[in-house]
Amino acid sequence: MPNHYSLQLDRDALPLGTRRLPPYESLCLQIRIRRRAYINDSVVQELPEYAQAFTLLHEMLLHEDSARVFLSFCLSAVGIPINDQDQMLNAIASFYLDMGVDPASSTCSGGAIPIVLADILIEYEAHDETQAVNRAIQESMELDMFKAVPATKSSIEGLKKVRLEGSGSMEECMICLEKFCVGQEATCMPCSHVYHGDCIAQWLERSHLCPLCRFQMPTDSGSSR
Fold this sequence. Notes:
The chain has 225 residues and is an alpha+beta fold. The chain has 2 domains: 4-146, no CATH class; 149-225, Herpes Virus-1. Helix content is 26%, strand content 25%. Strands 1, 2, 3, 4 and 5 form a 5-stranded mixed beta sheet that branches. The radius of gyration is 20 Å and the shape is elongated. Its EC number is 2.3.2.27. This is RING-type E3 ubiquitin transferase. It catalyses: S-ubiquitinyl-[E2 ubiquitin-conjugating enzyme]-L-cysteine + [acceptor protein]-L-lysine = [E2 ubiquitin-conjugating enzyme]-L-cysteine + N(6)-ubiquitinyl-[acceptor protein]-L-lysine. It is an enzyme of class 2 (transferase). One of its GO terms (molecular function) is ubiquitin protein ligase activity.
């Protein structure tokens, strides 16, 4: 039976009496996952809650394509399959825009970083209690596998530098969506995807997965695959 997802969004750490965000440079996205199994409309299994926080720069969310890449990374890191993410991606992106961030300002105000709280309830129907328990164990193992794990510092520093020549090269860095210039130096992943050096370094410091193909860079607990 397919999963049924319920998403609730809220915000925290905003100055009292304000509706629009002050010009912060970043915000915190905190995702909380709850899983619940039913048999004939009765709850038979409920996994412990799992929460993970992500710091997102406003510039990551100013363009729809880059926003979806970063938000998809966050949802994947808490075990949400890519095929189930579309509605949640749209809801989180819209919620962020409705908060009224001023993209023209680059000044960071004092005070706490705004927090977007995403509460995701995953419900599914089980045929019997054994199936519910087995599925809970399987999903818990999958969640452990997809948790955000940074790449090793040595593997990031060892990435190959390339000089872009125009034809055959990607037109833009798929992290920041800025166009590459002919002759510009970029960083090439082992999977052959190319990014700005700073962009991919910052990405890999949070996740060892290539943003485009999920190629796995080495981590302190294992090697690339």
